[in-house]
Design goal:
- With 305 residues, the chain is of the alpha/beta class.
- The chain has twelve helices and eight strands.
- The two termini are 30 Å apart.
Length: 305
């Protein structure tokens, strides 16, 4: 079994579709190839940015199997689980484990506001159903459920719950987790516009969105911070920030897919009910991207720091 390190850059990749809404596996794999060439440490399939709400279990397994077949020896391949029922979450986890997944990203129960104990019990039940490592997704801003420190206290007994995607928008939560649990849980920043700040506060990695269009710049920032070359990282990060802000937007999927098209490593079709960007909003996003591309920084040899 592959050991997932939960450190470095993990793109939450977009799901590529044909114009009719069917999966576009070749386009999906082309983008992942660019991510791996840039030096990412893992791939997360079927997350929010991957249009999770429109994917069936069969879709997820097809994407998982295609990624494993092509890149499974080169990088961590992580499948997102976002379900409304404990039973269906366990079914997907077991199906994906059988297909060869290396680990899971696991959201709290969807479409119901559970109590803290219900959240803890849900996570425990899924963790007990699989031998694979699990990254929890803590995003109370978008999903209205916070994985609190007392919940983490209960989950610390589960050996395969190993990491958290920290998306509370509160940088100090990195310190709270470190103070309470030390290195028990790996912490990966899940908000592009706070990534360098959280890395400097001790986060172990970055689950990134705009990496889908700008993989080299994203990995360069992470590697430069890790090497202590903060000023160089900061220069890239400041250039990147107006683009990274496209990630904290209800249309983040459309924004990032448009960015992938403009950098030549993606396609734009989305699955209904989403529409691609149009009108003034499309022009606003294109202007941000054109300005960024015109000033794209020269990167150091970040793979050999």
């Amino acid at each position: 079994m592959r050991k997932v390190k939960w450190t470095g850059v993990y793109p939450a990749v977009t799901t590529k579709f044909k114009e009719n809404g069917d999966l576009d596996i070749p386009a999906f794999l082309k983008n992942i190839e660019c991510q791996i060439e840039a030096g990412v440490n893992g791939i997360i399939i079927g997350g929010s940015l991957g249009e999770s709400s429109t994917l069936t279990h069969d879709d997820r397994i097809r994407l998982l199997e295609a990624t494993l077949e092509t890149f499974g020896e080169q990088t961590d391949v992580i499948l997102n689980i976002a379900e409304g029922a404990t039973r269906t979450a366990i079914e997907l986890a077991q199906k994906a484990e059988k297909a060869g997944a290396h680990g899971f990203m696991l959201l709290p129960p969807m479409m119901y506001k559970p109590t803290d104990q219900e959240v803890a019990d849900y996570f425990k039940a899924v963790a007990k159903s699989t031998d694979l490592p699990i990254l929890l997704y803590n995003n109370p801003v978008d999903y209205k459920i916070e994985i609190t420190l007392p919940i983490f206290e209960q989950l610390a007994e589960m050996d395969n719950i190993q990491a958290v995607k920290e998306s509370t928008r509160d940088i100090s939560n990195v310190t709270r987790l470190k103070n309470r649990f030390g290195d028990r849980f790996k912490i990966l920043c899940g908000v592009d516009t706070l990534a360098m700040e959280e890395l400097l506060m001790g986060a172990d990695g970055w689950i990134a969105g705009l990496v889908c269009a700008f993989p080299k710049e994203t990995v360069a920032i992470y590697e430069l911070v890790r090497a202590g070359r903060i000023e160089e990282a900061l220069k890239i990060y400041r250039w990147f920030l107006p683009i990274l802000e496209l990630d904290i937007n209800p249309q983040l999927v459309q924004n990032i897919k448009l960015a992938e098209v403009m950098t030549g490593i993606g396609t734009e079709p989305v699955r209904a009910p989403r529409h691609i960007l149009v009108g003034d909003e499309r022009e606003r996003v294109i202007k941000i991207l054109e300005d960024g591309l015109a000033a794209r920084p020269e990167l150091p040899d970040y793979k050999n720091l």
